[in-house]
Amino acid sequence: MRSHLYRGVLALAVALVFSAPAFAQGIVKGKVVDEKGQPVTDAKVTIAGPARNAETKTNNKGEFVQVGLQSGRYTVTVSKDKVGQAAQQVNVTQGTPAEANFTLTPTSGMSPEQKAVQEAAASAIDALRAGRDDEAITKLNDVVTKLPTCSDCYYNLGIAYTHKQQWTEAETALKKSIELKPTNPDPYNGLANVYNAQKKFDEALAMNQKATELAGSTAGAGGGGSAEAIYNQGVVLFNAGKYAEAKTQFENATKADANNANAFYQLGMTNLNLGQIPEAVSALETFLKLAVVKL
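The chain above was modelled as a monomer; its predicted structure follows.
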């Protein structure tokens, strides 16, 4: 019976080896009040990011919550007629909900010029999310011409170029994003992906480590910090053929998040490459259990 399961696990592993990793879902929550500090009920809340858009409303306490978001950079916009509009950006990661609180006033929001730029940026993100990378690149280049200090615009531009495998342009855009906002871990992760795709594994690992540092994780410390950042380091090490080091990272990722199915899958594949068959079977069996639960 066990040998049959083992063969089934390996067959699935082969089928999934080229699958793109799916990160755990995240949460955005917050509260909206007016200039007197009173809750704003039924305010429209739009949460826009490179993976998807979500929309909800505030409750009678002025609070909102949105679940089911992939990790990434999101723009949260709240609005209500005759009260005001405002927006801010948040980083959604595993484990800890991102929080965005707002105070709306009749004058809150943006100038007409700022609003036009925001709408153009939002249109570019829509194009990026829909896979229209050329359109996204054109629009984002127009936005950064008008607003050259927009770090997130350069970040998304780098992602669009990455989709098209235009590595030089992607690297330039992501480095510009870092120049404008060096404390944001996202463009470092973007550069890690760019270098990883070009098999520049040392550079990829350096960027991933920087992103981990900025995210406040303690990769390699045995279960502390961001499971996603630790997992990403493991992926870079795995692709570089550094299986023993990758195994440590994937083990730490499973300790930091025991429900991270991708970490167990990659741990199983790493064990296979190390010739550690029983450990590989155990990790892949856990992956299958977690994957079934998510279905």
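The CA atoms of residues 3 and 240 lie 31 Å apart.
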